[in-house]
Design goal:
Blueprint lengths: L11 H11 L2 E8 L20 E8 L1 E2 L5 E6 L3 H8 L2 E8 L10 E12 L2 H10 L12 E14 L5 E5 H4 L7 H17 L1 H11 L8 E6 L2 E5 L4 E5 L7 H17 L1
Antiparallel strand pairs: 1-2, 1-5, 3-4, 4-7, 5-6, 6-7, 7-8, 9-10, 10-11
Helix pairs in contact: 5-6, 6-7
Amino acid sequence: MKKIKPNPNSSEIEKARNLMRWATKAYIATELSSNTKPPDAPGGKATTVEDSHPYASLSLVALDHNATPYMMLSDLADHSQNMAQNPKTGMLFDGTAGYRDPLAGGRVTLIGTMQKVNNDRMLQRFLTRHPASKLYAGFKDFSLYRYDIQEAHLIGGFAKAIWVSAKDFRLDCTKSQELIEAETSIIDHMNSDHSDAISVIAEKTLQLEPSKWRMCGIDPEGWDLHNGHIHARCSFDQLVTNASEARNALVSQTKQARAS
């Protein structure tokens, strides 16, 4: 993953959301206790744990349009069983790739709770971002989980750290329902009819290697693309709220890329 270069005119909250939207994975911290799972549970249990301990793990992540994280987890996994006992969960997004000194890069730590949900739209968004997950999405023990942010800790490098409430951190999408409803059709249209535009933006604007780049998501702040192995993101200059505004923004980005 290349170094994330946010718009210098963006606020710290916008930079943090951009970092999270770039991410394909996140680290989660749950509470592991001695009574979380029985000894004969699949995978066994930690036999020497007599009280509670923080338990860190890693999973794929996809963000909703307002920046709410979602994960698809196995109910048999230790972190899922931990959350069934105590939904309080920490989440870390790491944006330090490409930095000679990782501590100079950005990261976002979230405090909140994780709960299992049924959300067909968000499940489709997750699978579009992570196509390989379709292999196990239908398994009975896999479920979609939503992370409800309580507060966010934004770290932009040395001596750059602030706490932000969920209300201030999440993107207000009340005026973006048309875009949300049109997302699947926009993605299908771009991938089937404008793959050349996606490629020129990927190669000229984002400086990515030539490949079969495909759009895999769009939200008011930008759009996501991948080639089957690498994910990337292209931000909009201003928020888009509907299909028409998205089209105008994508046309403008394509023209700029071709002129570069």
